[in-house]
Structures are given as C-alpha cells and as structure tokens.
Amino acid sequence: MTAQSAGLALAIALMLAGAIGAVLLKEVMRVMIALGAFLFGVAAMYAYLGYSFLAIAQVFVYVGGVLVLMVFAVMTARRADGERPAIVSRHDVGSAAVAAGVGAMLFLSLRTAFGDTSVPVSRSASDLASELLGPRLVAFEAAGVFLLAALVAVAVILKGGEER
Amino acid sequence: MTSFLLGALWGVVGVVVIAGGAVIGVWWERKVAGRIQLRYGPQQIGPAGSLQMLADVPKLLFKEDVVPSGADKPLFKYAPLVVFAPVAAAIAVIPFAKGWAMFDTAVGVLFFLAVPSIEVVAILVAAWAQRNTYSALGGLRAASQMIAYEVPRALSVAPLVLLAGSLRPTDLVAAWRWWWVPLLALAFLIYLISSIAEMNRGPFDLPEAESELVAGYFADYSGMRWAIFMMAEYGAIITTSLFAAATFLGAGWPFDGALGVVALIVKAAALVTLVMWTKWTLPRIRQDQLLRFCWTVLVPAALVQLAIVGVVLPWL
Amino acid sequence: MATEELTLNIGPSHPSTHGVCRLVVRLDGEIVTHVEPVIGHLHRGIEKIAENRTYLQVVPLTDRLDYVGSMYANWAYCRAVERLAGIRVPERAEYIRVIVCELQRIASHMMGIGSSAADTGATSAFLYAFDQREKVIDLFEALCGARLTYNYVRPGGVAFELPDGWIEQCRAFIEQHPSAMLTIDEFFFGNAIARVRLKGIGVLDADTAVAWGVSGPAARGSGVDWDLRRDDPYSVYPRFDFDVPLGSNGDCFDRARIRLWECIESCRIIEQALDQIEPGPIMAEGLPRLLAPRPGDAYDHIESARGSLGVYVVSDGSPRPYRMKVRSPAFCNLAVLPEIAVGYTLSDLLVILGSLDPVFGEVDR
Amino acid sequence: MIALAVACALFSLGLYAVLSRRDIIGVLVGVEIMLGAGSVLLASLGAASGASSGSVQAIGVMVLLLAAAEAAVGLSLLLSLYRTSGRSRVDELSEVSG
Known about the structure:
The structure holds four protein chains of four kinds.
Chain A: H1 3-24, H2 28-49, H3 52-78, H4 93-110, H5 126-133, H6 137-163
Helix pairs in contact in A: 1-2, 2-3
Chain C: E1 5-10, E2 22-28, E3 31-38, H1 46-50, H2 58-63, H3 70-85, H4 91-119, H5 123-144, E4 153-154, E5 157-158, H6 166-189, H7 192-198, H8 206-211, H9 217-220, H10 228-231, H11 252-276, E6 296-303, E7 308-315, E8 321-327, H12 329-335, H13 337-341, H14 346-356, H15 360-364
Antiparallel strand pairs in C: 1-2, 2-3, 4-5, 6-7, 7-8
Chain D: H1 2-20, H2 24-49, H3 53-85
Helix pairs in contact in D: 1-2, 2-3
C-alpha cells in the first residue's frame, strides 16, 4: 500500500464514518463532531486529488466557518436548559428507500462518465485565480452578490425574530 | 510509504518542539511577568528558576484528572487534544531556513491561516462538554473572537503573498527584501494584534478572563488536560512568532545556514517576549469593544495596506 | 445572538467578588438584566459577640470588620466608647491616630485601585498598587507587630508609643508615595484600554448616591461633596490643610481615580501631622482597669476609606456593652450595585463591583 | 470508480438525514453532507477527466460559498424559530414569516 492509497482510504473512511454518524447520532454536539469529521474527510479527498487550495479552503470555510456557526447556534439556542439536547428523527423505511434509490440512480447514471481514476499531479493556486478572474468572472461576481444577499437575509430574519 | 513515515516523523518532531517550547515559554513568561511586576518570578530551582517547569510537569501529570459529573465524558476528555493538534500542525509549514520547511506546500500560507479554525471547533466542544455556564460563555466569546480576527489576520498576510507572488512560505522567504519591513510595517502590526486576539492572549484574553469567567472555556479542566490547553496557548504564541519572524522579518536574514536558523529563533523569541510584554502591561478589553476594534480599525487598516501594496506593485 | 435569559451565580468564591459575596445575575446575552447581591457568607455575629466581651475586648473584634482598614473600625469604636465614658484622649494619641488612619486610608485605597485594575485585567497595575500597600503594612508591623488586624487604637489612646526611627520611615514613605501614585495614574488610568473599560461604566448620579446612603470615594466620585473629616470635624483634623477631591461623572473611572488623589491628600495630612506632633502621653490617665460607663448611649462616626463609618454603643452600667451597632459604609455602598449595574455587560458588572470597593467583613459583620 | 461510489453513498446518507430528521439543525447537516458529496463527485470527476485544475477548483470554491451562505441563512432561521417557539422542529417552519 502506498502512502497515496493510504491517504485515499483515510479520506474515504473519514467521510463515510462522519456522514453515518452525522445522520444517525442523536446528541447534537456529537452530530456536529461527526459532521466535522465528514468535512475533514472531504478536505482530505481534495488534497488526495491534488486540489490543495480547495482542500485548505474547505477547512477554512467549512470547519472554521460553517461548522463553528452551527455549534455556536446550538450553544446559544439550548445551553440553559441543562438537558442533553437530542435531535429528533423519524426513521422509516420509506425515506431510507428513497435515499438509497436516489444514490443508486446517481451511481448508475454517472458510471459511464468515469474512467479509471488517475492519480493526479499537484496543481497550484495561481491557475485558480486566473480561472476565477478570467472565464468565470461572472459566476464569481454572482457568488459575491449571492453572499451579500445571504447576509442581508440573515440580518432580516434575526431582526424579525427580535421584534416578536 | 517512506514519505508517509517521514511525515509521521516530522509530526513527532513538531509536537516535541511545541511542547518543549511551551515549557520554556512558561518559564520565560513568568520571568518577564515578574520583571514587569516588581517581582523575581521563579528563582529557586536551577539557574534563575529555569528548571522550575521540569518540576511542574510531573506535578501536572500526577494531579487527579477530575471529570465533572455533569460533563459529557468522551468529549470532555478528548477535546483538549483536538485543541492542541492544529497548533502543532501549524509549525509544519514554517520555513526555518531558505527553501526548507517540514511540509513545504504550495498553499502553506493558507494552511497556516486555516489551522486555528479547527482549534475554534475544539474549543467550543470543550466548552460545551463541561456543562458549565462560565465555560459556555468563554467558549462563545472565543469562537466569535477567533472567527472575527481571522479576517484581518488573513488580510494582513495578503500583501506578503502579493509581493512574493506565491502562497508557498519558502517562496516568501526567498522573495524577501529588507524594504519589505518599512513597506509592510502596518501589515505586520495588524498581523501581531490579530494573532494575539486569535490565540486569546491578553489584552484580548476575554474567553479565559480570570476576573470574570474564572478560566473561561477550560474552567473545569485540571491536571494534564489543563496543561494541554496551556501548551496549545504557548504553542500558538511560538508558531505565530516564528511565522512572523520568517515571513515579515526575513527569516535568517542577514545570515545563512545554521546561523540563519539561530537568527530566526532570536527574532521569534523577541516577538514572543513582545507578546508577553503586551499581556502583562495592558488591561483587558471588553467583548463589544473587541469586535468593534476588529471591524472598524483593523480590517480597514489592513485593506489600506493591501491597497498600498497593490499600487506600488507594478513599479517593483 | 441573544436568546433566552441565563441565570449565573457569581461567587461566593470567585476571583472578582473581593471576598465572599454571591451575585445572582441574570444575563441577556452578555448584558446584565438583573443583579442581586446575596450577602451573609462572612457573617460572624460580631455585634452580638461584642455584648459578651468587655469594652477593651471588643477592640480586636472591630479589627475583623473591615480587615483591609482595621484602624478605622478600631478608632470609630474607641471614639464611641470615649464619648460614652467621657474619656479625654491626650493630644499626642490623637495625632498618632490621625497618622495611622491616613496611612490606613492609603493602604486601603491601594487595595481599591488594585482591584479596579485587576478586574479590568491589568494585573501589573494591581501589583504596583500592592507594592505601596506593602510599604504601609511594613510601617504598621513596626508599630504594633501585626500586618492586618492591628488592635492598635484603644479606648483612651493608642496601644504603643511610636518606635524609634518610625517617623523617619514614615516621612520616607510619604515622600515617595505621590510620585508612585502619578506613575500608576499614567500607567493605568492613562491607558487607552483602561479608559474605555472604566469611563461611562456604572454611572451613579449624585442624587441616587445620597438617596442610597452611599458615602466615601464612591459618593465623591459622583460629585457628592461630603467628607466627615471636613464637614463634621473630629480629632485634630481642623488643624490640617487638605482638599477633598471630587469626581464629576460618577462612573467607575471617577470612583477609582478619586482614591488616587485622596492618597496624595493623605500624604499631605500625614506630613503636617508629623510636623506638629509633640511628645506627651499616649493614653488617657486614670482609666479604670475595667471600663464600666454609666448607663446611656453614644454614637460617633469617622471618615473611613469606604465612607462614613459609625459605631453606636449602648451601656447598661455593666463592664460589657449592652449593644453595639456598626453603620457600615461598605454595606450601604454595595446596596446601590443593582441600581447601577443593570444594562452593562457581565465584564462591566465586576468592574462596577470592584469600583464600589466593598469589604465583606464589614458588609456581613 | 471508488470515488463515484463513495459520493453516491454520501449523497444517499445526506438525503436520508433530510428526510428523517425532524429538527432544522439535523436537516441542515443533511444538506451539508449532500453538498459535500456533490463537490467530491465533481472534484473526482474533474481529476478523472483531466479537466484544468483551475476550473475544477473554481467550481469547488463556488459550491463552498453557496454552502456557507446556505448555512448562515438556515441557522438564522433556526435561531429565529427557536426564539419564537422555543423549539426548532421543521414542521413549525411554515409558521415563520419575516
């Protein structure tokens, strides 16, 4: 086993274990930790594929931003009552079947698009910059506008809650 | 496989360097604080009390490992390790010499900046696991502060990246010229301030504010687990100072080779002392003032610095 | 991101409660919406114990009231007893009392300033203040052998003559003290962070201060021009020339900084007293071994470091006081805390508490 | 091919969370997992097809930004809901306005 395949195995194990935990665990903080493991695994996957910039950005934005925000929300929303907050779920065969079916469908339809996954070479961040500011400038700007809109939405929602 | 082993070896070296540095750092901090506060600091064990910490480590190891009855046991036990790990990881990308770092990657600067975000999650989990109101407040303070100060910290490093045209720390060292120091003085200052806030040190030590929150996010920890939090704090001081010394202050300049490493360590030690000096001189700022300072002073100043570098860049 | 109110118990054992006080705080986010000091953790029943001790035996009990300023409680109690028994105190004893009590004011204010500094996280300023306090306590140690509970002022005079060289030591201290105060003023009160932490925090207006019976530096910080040393002169105070520093905003900054200027004024008083003091007896003559004043009652008050400290003593003709009651300035000052702390943050709450400088030995008695 | 299988499995897991969780935070976690699965798929597809690294990373960064915005809005909904009702069930979302 080479170091690289070990890395791939680690990334996949992290992603799967994290996702399973995040879906099935009950206690909310453990769900968050499982989600953190999943996000980390995705970063590891990116790193394995050679997208090191994307991997770091994943850690930066997801782990440092989104996950912290979620934990923060959990703590502010339910720290006072003292009980161990659990996430209520309604496990049933139907939703499991639907989820599995969608997954299988995805797999079958995309199977042909994949050749044999080649081990990629290292890629630098500067071609990302030229890509973002060149052909995909419109999308980049649109993302910026979208983020701004999201910020405004957050402010409006929280304000509305306060007034109540 | 060999590269894997090599990586593991460097990992061990990094942890040892951080742990050893933390032990020296605690001693040094006590001496610096003593000097500032009209006291001596440790002076009984070893020359100038330098072996005091060696006496303290066994004490911490053998102290009872108290887990509060209401705590979430597994989270409580392992959160400190997750607090420490990213700090130790950060040392990997620091260019100790021209063209050499333990883990020389093309996105090293980003790596260095992203690492504390993992620490934030771990701190929040630790704060949560204790089920203590003080620690919860401390954790929330830590999270809001660390996320907010990531912005000016990243912005203050951006001019370096612009000048060097690379995110690889060793490239930054190679591209460094002496006139970067006056040009980037503002960025350096912002980097230092936001790093101090990022690692929850005085005057931004609100998350552990002794006079308000007792010890904040690690209020209920004792013994070695508490010591790991301290090690993470000192590790953060050390890596931050090393990074600043390597990138803003030109690493080993004016020397090369082994002498250059010594010069780097001397510069970093001076920065560590500066950080301690700041803590022991200044009062503690308040949470709302802290965040206002970040958004109204540091971020605009960092943007101004970035603009200045952007304007002069074409003529360099 | 405020959601619901959070109840937080601060103390009774907490780094910033300056003794054993419990604050029940309700927080909305970090904003204090309600605060209630729960006192009594240090209640030892001193007033009741005093009813079973002779008049002289009560003096050590008064040491334990305000343990940061024992001399004051000694003196206030002795003045009440002297008034009750009609004892005339020799002039030299009065001078010594003034000197030690002004030194005590410095020592106590160093604690007050130091805790204001420590509450805002300026541990070095705290130690600078404590360095000065240490010097005063060394003087007291030379005088009576004790560093905290002096038992020095006794009914009729003081316990011991000044030791040889003490006056010179004292002069040396008051010579360096004002400049040390200016250093602290520059180092702590001049610091930008300390200013934003203290200014405009816990504002107490003059009317509220009077209405709640707040006295001492806490009231003078709000501009209440009231100092018993000048407005109800006792002992030899009318012979000294001194000013009463006043604040204007009634915030934590003024309350803390007033103490600094009061220390400098205290140095002026001590200097004049050292110049004027003359040899003579230090204890009233012809005192009986066992004081048993005629039935009656007496009240006397002095300006302690915390405010108007009064002692009321009732005698039924026996050698033990029938009743002793202390009017404690720390208690009255603490009572105003809920009035001035609501609406500020948790961090401010502890700074406000520190700026009132309560000593719980005196609050709980 | 492994990457594709893993991504599809992750997507199913995320979808299952969205379907079965009754709590907004659980649903959000599910959505994050689905987004993550999509990005992994995209990245591995890009690597396999030999697309230019810049374009793959650019799209990845876009997804990242969208996910961050989604989380922010979702969490503010959660807090607002929690504030009004003290609970955070999905069923109650229909009653939130403003």
